[in-house]
Every structure is written in C-alpha cells, then in structure tokens.
C-alpha cells in the first residue's frame, strides 16, 4: 500500500492519538474565538423562519429532550439538536469562514459536539481539542479537492463538514483507530449540499445535516458499524466521486504541525464572504465623504471573478437572496453604513431608496483582483468621482476582527434573544470555556429564562 492508499488511515491515526496538551496556545485561543462567534450566530438566528419551520416539521418525530437548541427554551434529542443548531448558526450567513476553501468550519463541528456534550460530560479542554480536530479534518479534506469540487457545484461546507463532525464526535467518544476509519468512511458516504441552493433556506440545512450525519457516523462506528477502509481516497471513494482534482498531501502532510484552524476568519457582515471587500470600501467612502444616496449617479465595482459567480443576483426578492447580491450589499453599505442581519431582511431588499441606489451599482470582473480586494468608483450627480481601493477586507486574515469586535458582534446578535445581562454572562463564560469542567454549562446559559405564570 502506498501513502496515497492510506489517506483515511493516516488521518484517523492522527485524530485518535492527538492530545490537548500538544495544541499550541494560538490554536486553542483561535478555537475559543471560533466557538464564541458560532454561539453568537446560533443564538441570534434561533427565531429565524428557517429554524421555526425545521423544528415544527421535525421535532414532533424526535426522541427525548436531551440537548438545547441555542436561544430557545425547547430541548430536543441529540441528533435533532445537531441539525437545528447547524441550521441556526448558518442561516444569517454570519458564521466563520476558512478563506482557502470558503468552508464555514464551526457549523458542522460545533453543532454536533455541543449536542453530544449535553448527553455525556465533556470538559472545556477536551471540547476545544475535539473542535480543533474537526476543523482541521474538514479544512484539510476541503483543501485536497478545492476549487474543482466547489466549481462543480458542491457546497463544500456540507460535503467536507460531515468529516469534521465525525472526527470531532469520534474524538469525544474515544474511538480507536479502526473505529475512526469507519466513522470517516460513514461520513464519506453522506455528502450533502449543492450550491444551487444558495439564497434559500436549504443552504443552512447543509451544515445542519452535515453535523447530524457526522455525529451519526461516529455513533455508529463506536458500536462497530463497518465501512470502507479507504472512504476518502479509494477509486470510488469520496474524493474521486466528488472531484476531478485531488491532492492528498493536503490531508496528510504536517498533521499536528500545520494548523488550518489558524486560517479561520470571522465575518463583520452578514452575507457571502466575497462581497465583504465591496461593503468595506463602500462604508469607508460613506464615512469619509458623508455620502448620501440621492447624491450618487453611479457606483462601479471592479471585483474578483468569484464575486459575480456567487453574488451576482441583480434583483433579490428575499432577504436570503440579498445575501448573494453584491449590488444590494453595496447599496445598504452606503445608505446604512453597515451590513448586519437587519440589512438582509425581506423588507430591506424591497426598500425603495435601497432599490434606487442598487440599480445604480455595476460590477465588472477583473481577473487580476485578489479575492479579498475591490476597487470602487463612485460618481456623484455633480460629476465628482470618488475612488477607494480595498486591498484586504476587514475580517480577512490580514485584517482580522479583534476580540472586542467579536464581542460587539456577539452582543448585537444575542441581546435581542436573551437580554443584555444574560448575553453578557454567556459571553464571559464563552471566553473562559477552556477552564469549564463541563462544556454543557454554555448550552444551558444559551437558553432564555422561561417565564413563570
């Protein structure tokens, strides 16, 4: 057997043998930032229509009340909690992003293992290790097939995320090497997610189902449910079936030395990551020149090719649609000076002033433009031209959000659901998660206080 024939085994061996004390401090700190950001997104979107519908449709058929749906009083069975929290954490499109692959890493992994941790006690230290390993797994597998896999039309957060959820849950379950191979094989046979679904509720279903499927994979493997020994790399395995390009060294090289989780980034804007440079630049122009929508004749954007491929919706009809419209995003950035969840409501995409400015926005592909850059030219009605070049958008690896900015984002999302004091308590506990004896404390804190009659 060559090394290329032992990809699944090599990864499984690393996952089983990895220890918390081997993680560098920077990696552990990044895991905390990732989880705090994920919690904020999940709680903030907990009343979204997509979550309400999913729970109304499926909760009646679930099992006993074992785990929390963050931001809600209800408890559901562990597998349902993984699904619902995965949906909730992603539906605002405000969650973390591994920029090399555009995977949203926390959704599949955190949703799976927090639900599991409410069923069996897990310390903060153990949880951070599992979270980190899950993210490492999904991002390395994503690296191996990106961009071809994504270009074909797979939503890589779902298709690679299932491996992350299986690896992380398997670690918490104490799987041995053979069981971890089986868990990864079971994950390989359950890819979920088509890019065709972007702009609909089904996009958020992808990380939810990936979390649920990955957790199922680990639970089955723990009981001896077998799968292929080469689920990832076999001729008819996951990588060969879902992509025409594969680089298995991305999965196996430097395990424990090169940490993909350090490349995770956090969104300051609640929309597709490729729009962020345009939003950033438009907000800067607005603030620097006191721009008013009615004084603008045109807004011209020069963008990376992926911007129009992913976010070229000219006339979005719903808030979810708006998250994939660079035109709408530029308009709200100038009018409101922000692009949070309120700027992507159904009402916002039909707002008359926004529509008028949106119609003045054009976007042109520049093949030389980096993915996190943009050039903006605003022409005013008096003929004056204003220009802004953004080399690295805020939230990128080169201009990361600070802990204070993450805290402000968290508070803005969580306060309307839990209230100010409750949100502050959850945030403080989140920053201290590594020292918790039982990580389920965070799930309990993420539940609203039930009103008594």
TrEMBL record:
Membrane-spanning residues: none
Domain MmgE/PrpD C-terminal: 269-431
Coiled coil residues, start to end: none
Pfam families (alphabetical): MmgE_PrpD_C, MmgE_PrpD_N
Family: Belongs to the PrpD family.
Domain MmgE/PrpD N-terminal: 9-248
Family annotation (InterPro entries): MmgE/PrpD_sf, MmgE/PrpD_sf_1, MmgE/PrpD_sf_2, MmgE_PrpD, MmgE_PrpD_C, MmgE_PrpD_N
Gene3D superfamilies registered for this protein in UniProt: 2-methylcitrate dehydratase PrpD
Protein name, UniProt field: MmgE/PrpD family protein
